[in-house]
Amino acid sequence: MKILMVLTSHDQMGDTGHKTGFWLEEFAAPYYVFKDAGAEITLASPKGGQPPVDPNSTQEDALTEQTRRFEADEQAKEQLANTHKLDEVRAEDFDAVFYPGGHGPLWDLTHHAHSQQLIHDFLSAHKPVAAVCHAPAVLVHAKGEDGQSVVKGRRVTGFTNGEEEAVGLTKVVPLLVEEALKQQGGHYERAEEDFAPYQVRDGLLITGQNPASSAPTAELLLSTLREG
User: Fold this and answer.
1) What's the confidence (pLDDT) of residue 46?
2) CATH fit for domain 2-227, picks 3.40.50.2030, 3.40.630.30, 3.40.50.880, 3.40.30.10
3) Which of 3, 62, 83, 143 has a CB 3.0–4.6 Å from the CB of 45, allowing a cystine?
4) Euclidean distance between CA atoms 2 and 56, whole angstroms
């Protein structure tokens, strides 16, 4: 079982002067779900090398059992420091792809041509594609075999408008995930309360709403792979 994880290379929160990147828990939790299941994990990012970690995700209130496990895992940290360049990876070499969130993907992965091609190729080969929190934005411009957005007519979730408002970034981000999914014809779903875990699968497309959804979304990807 070979799983590709695609992380952002973008580290600037618009023109605010604040740093961003991927959200540590949204990487660490799925990473260990996959690793503990015996999967072979490959990491990639647009620029390759060390992807930027959102500094807010390393603060004490954001840490989890999985992030602490990662911080003590020298092998995992070495792997993260040496991600492959995204343009060099191919869907044919993997069984599934998972996109961790954080705000970074909104800037570099949402319109990344090779990422869009990868998503198309995975789905065309009947391989699952998963994304959590802000990362479902990578799906909105990816096209299926019918030339339409891969989210059109599909049940999907992602970071809610209310969650973005709660973190005070509605006016900073280049797009709102909930709105973007709806605009492309996605059947958007969410938990009753903001920041509660929620994940949904529609065929080979798997999405999670927020950081609390990262491990369950990864588990849903695993169960999809086990179904064959």
Assistant:
1) 98
2) 3.40.50.880
3) 83
4) 30
